[in-house]
Amino acid sequence: MRCDHYAITTRTGQSKLATRMSTLWLHVELVPSQGDMVSIGRDEARHAFGARRLHAGDMVTLFDGCGGLAQARLSETRTRDGEYLVELITREHAPSDVPQTTIAFAVPKGDRLSTLLDLTTQAGVSRLVPIDCARSVVDAGKRDRGERWHRVIAESTKVAKRAWMPELTVGGTLLHVARAERARGAALAVAECATAAPLIAWRDSLPATQPRTIFIGPEGGFEPAELDAMRALNATMVSLGPCVMRVEMAAVAACVLLRS
Fold this sequence. Notes:
The chain is built from eight helices and 13 strands.
């Protein structure tokens, strides 16, 4: 997805935020830096005019998932392809998350992956990376992460009213991903057991702007050899609390604790 940068043209920061939070959000491929009109897809138009019962002249917020935001006015004008056009009123570009929060997770079975993507997006995750572990039940490299998962993340970004859509990256083995995360300067943590140091203590020990990546293993846990290899990469063992959690719940809990 391409991102354009443009100047903020709205009023005060507080009024912009209040307007964005009170209007319906619609996803577009790109909030253009120039022009007065942009088309919205049929699904978005159906949601606005049908489910939400909005009318021509009502205000909405457009977002492209790359920081592009616009206040826009619905219209009844359509393109030749039948897509509705909306009138752009103001544009801005929101900064990306700092620090960046990455959840590297063993892929759960069935629709639980959809739950993980949905809830971590609403909790504010920046990046999602599937990993293969010795006890994984789903191959991260073969799992379909195509249009369906993009739609889940886009819808959850819309619900959370976030300017930036989380990135679902190509995964790999535990150590491959850990080395890649370390190479980009991220601090590494492994959610391992209740007796480890609390995640919040590790978070508070980091520089404010340093990216942080937490690894969530399969329900069988990480093998001892995997934990030793992660320690060799300077990963810190952390606890998410006294209870045993499923992968998707652990991912959400980690994200909330890191973002709180």
